[in-house]
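Objective 1b. Sequence-to-structure analysis of Protein kinase domain-containing protein.
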Amino acid sequence: MASCIAKAVEHWHTVNWVHQGICSHNIFLFTPRESNTKTRYDFSSPFLQGFDFSRPNAKPSLENHVEDLKYDVYRHPERQGPSREGHKKIHDLYSLGVVLLEIGTWGSAIDMIKRVTPEGRDVTKEDMFKWLKRHAKQRLAHHLGEEYQQAVMTCLNSDFGVSMDDDRNTMLANAFRERVLDKLASWKHVH
């Protein structure tokens, strides 16, 4: 499932579009086609949807900002708050990292944040970022192995080793393939 979703994002980026809404709410699972299976959902073929705000990579982002934990948890820290950067492919990859964390822990990122937030305290983007990374570091390697954990951490840290790129983000695409897709593919074959 994780690999399929990551490949969907890669394909979307290949045509030079950004999604701007990658989150677990936008991942659909359907029932298996075979009627003789006991599985309720087909986890091998997830469907990424929620393209309401998708756009070509070169177009400016919409300026409407809604501050809401259920959306902010998936937004790159640069994309949170009233003054924020325009949406880039790297921001989609951060969102993917949050979804991969949820898949790897089989839990909600919002619940992860709420469990560690002191009563009555607002969650800052810095806290959210720190706590998501902590969950990834503490929980993923044990259950899913270091390759999966590294793929998630790469996305969460936006650590693709690319500072300058062409207008199609070719170097970012290659780094994403190497540091995330290949790791997820190798994880898939091992587990």
